[in-house]
Specification:
Layout lengths: L4 H26 L4 E2 L3 E5 L1 H7 L6 E11 L3 E7 L1 H12 L11 H26 L3 E3 L3 E6 H11 L7 E10 L2 E11 L1 H10 L5
Antiparallel strand pairs: 1-7, 2-7, 3-4, 3-5, 3-6, 4-8, 7-8
Helix pairs in contact: 1-4, 3-4
């Protein structure tokens, strides 16, 4: 699927607005100033996604949230250890050395942060397209990124083979952290979404 410059700009606009709102929400919750680079937004297949997030064996926190309404599908929010440490240290004073140390209260905090950040993106899509979209309660898992993505695609067999991939780079004091937002609509919803942005499907 080849995108022209205008269509790529539309996808980037979603990323810009969503990431900006997410950064603002994150800043309020952590009581810290959060700056961000312009997010990288692209339409990728699964193999390129694995490459873009550092390889299939990279351990990450994955938060899965389904969405429904005018379009259906799932969002997979991936957090690297540095981002998880920033959140938990700011909220709970936790010095995260290993993902194995994460307990229930820390999982709950990560789920809440992820829910708020994903909501920022969904609200951006709804605002830009005029669609009604609702999200479900988040499900959090810690695993290799390849395993998380495989689990999503096997459980939701109707998702399309292209994913809207958003890579965010945040700056907080002396720390630089990354997160990744994967928007996986089902096949009919992908067509609706692309048509809303003027992309023939």
């Amino acid at each position: 699927m080849e995108l022209n410059e205008l269509q790529i700009d539309l996808l980037k606009e979603i990323g810009n607005i969503g990431a900006g709102n997410a950064a603002t929400s994150l800043s309020h919750m952590l009581s810290k100033r959060i700056d961000m680079n312009v997010p990288e937004v692209s339409l990728l297949d699964y193999n390129h996604i694995i490459e873009s997030i550092g390889g299939a064996e990279n351990i990450v926190v994955g938060v899965l949230i389904a969405f429904e309404g005018d379009i259906q599908g799932v969002i997979l929010f991936l957090l690297k250890k540095e981002f998880v440490h920033l959140i938990l240290n700011s909220l709970l004073g936790t010095e995260l050395q290993s993902f194995e140390e994460i307990e229930d209260i820390e999982r709950s905090a990560l789920s809440e942060i992820s829910n708020i950040m994903v909501s920022s993106y969904v609200n951006s899509i709804a605002s830009l397209t005029g669609m009604k979209i609702n999200i479900t309660i988040p499900s959090l898992n810690i695993d290799m990124s390849g395993a998380l993505l495989d689990a999503v695609t096997s459980e939701f067999s109707e998702v399309a083979d292209k994913v809207v991939f958003i890579k965010e780079k945040y700056h907080c004091q002396n720390e630089t952290v990354y997160s990744y937002m994967l928007l996986l609509p089902d096949i009919p919803s992908l067509k609706i979404l692309l048509n809303k942005f003027g992309i023939d499907s």
